[in-house]
Amino acid sequence: MSVEGFGPFPVRNFQPIHQLVLGMPGDRATVLKPGARDLRVELANSANIFSDTTPQASVSMKFESIRAGFFLRYGITERLEMAVEVPVLSRYRGVMKGMISAVERATTGLAPDRKALKDTGYAYQVTSDGRTVMNGLEGVVGLGDASIMGSFRC
Fold it and tell me: pTM for the full model?
């Protein structure tokens, strides 16, 4: 098994609300040779903080996510490969709060959402018209949405 050269590092957006439309995996411009396999594991820790209330909705998020993505690519033909991604997610209180706050204070000042949620250890709740739309519990580990992908070189 060998990994062929590829361009810049892929960039992924792991913010929970953005993932609804922006969580697509980065892709390579080449395909694997027939019968070749490529197994890749990605690990990302991201801090999430957001607080907003309107008459229609309320959002309160303060947590960090650990996301491990397991990718398997397989070369079908000289021009076609198939791939599958299986992500595993966990949300928790986090460890980056102090570092992020120090950087914010030294640069632009503490973010308003961080000030609003300073006494909150963990939060993940979205309500709309009084109904809970999203609610994430702390420490739960689970599978994300698996993706099946194909790449064809013209």
Answer: 0.71
